[in-house]
Amino acid sequence: MKTQFPVAVVGGGMVGAAMALGLSAQDIEVALIDPGGLNTATSPKCNDAHSFDRRVSALTLASEKLLRDLNVWTDIEPYCLRYTDMDVWDSAGSGRIVFSSADVYESSLGLIVENRVVTSALHQRIAERPNIHVIKDQATALQSGASGYSLETGGGETVSCRMLVGADGALSRIRQWLSIPTREWDYGQRAIVATITTSRPHQFTARQRFLPTGPLALLPLLDQDRNYRCSSIVWSADSAEAGRLMELDDASFKAALYEASEQALGEVVDISRRFAFPLRQRHAKRYYDGGAVLIGDAAHTIHPLAGQGVNLGFEDVAALLDEARRALSRGVPLGHEEMLRRYQRRRQAGNLSMMTLMEAFKRGFGHPSPMIAGVRNAGLALVNKTPFIKKELIRQAMGV
């Protein structure tokens, strides 16, 4: 097995796979290390609440562009639901804001797709690339030296590289081995995810209602029968409330969801198995160390209330690929400090700004004060009546 590479990417999820594929398109030889290897199975066509993957993402048009550039979009698009509207409202008052793609002369605000569809499409292309070497193993140790990095795997192999990319998730071993500090805190909330079928169609609208214990998001999905009654829910709630909701039987949970959503989609007819995971914000204080660099959740994790997590990761990929292209054109070695410093400058401030904004939303809408509730409701109403502000918010959310 070949053991020396210009670049090694640790983590084969959506962000890591996109990074490896983008580097290979620049004729760079890449090692992709992931214990799961490649999953090239074609995703099934889904028609009910029980056939969808529990993990879905709301992709921006900027993320769509990256996936088009990587030549995987044709395999993803048949599974995507393009949503045209977004309806956001406060449970404590009458404040509401409605966004429409028509406001900015676009056909949609974004797309909802299962994570497994995106991963499978990326992995299928990776399997076709002779300059991507997939190592189905766990990285267990890291050593650095003058010529780069050496990764030990669980199988006893040593993989050497000049530039190392950590795309191994929120609990990144690469970040820990590099001793890169983070700023982080627990939100005191858990996110409940599931797929539902409702009595009324979703009308290509993403919905979010802010409750005192946390936001409830209803994300429209594409069912292959085109009934448009399937949606993914992300219900973020204070830990005690989330625990109570998870203990309910399906009938009681469906009733609670019906009330929490203000019957926006009618009755909840069916629901998949529910999953819950704790929410924690985490941001690396620096994105690189020597010739090693962090992308995606390894560098930053964010509250899911705006659905921006994977989009920020794809923006990291686009920026790092651009800097790699720039470095090569100027004769600068991959992983050179100049290259990685430019990447950090491009991405760190923007990621931090988005995280700060989401924290402000979370705290503002979760505050019990009637005075604050009145202010935020007035703010929503004002923005809803101000076309210029709405258009700017839409464009930022779309990544255009």
UniProtKB/TrEMBL annotation:
Cofactor(s) required for function per UniProt: FAD
Q: Name one GO biological process term.
A: ubiquinone biosynthetic process
Would you say which domain of life the source belongs to?
Answer: Bacteria
Q: Which PROSITE patterns match?
A: UBIH (PS01304)
| Recorded GO CC terms | ubiquinone biosynthesis complex
- Quaternary state and partners of this protein? Component of the Ubi complex metabolon, which regroups five ubiquinone biosynthesis proteins (UbiE, UbiF, UbiG, UbiH and UbiI) and two accessory factors (UbiK and the lipid-binding protein UbiJ).
**In its UniProt entry, what is this protein called?**
2-octaprenyl-3-methyl-6-methoxy-1,4-benzoquinol hydroxylase
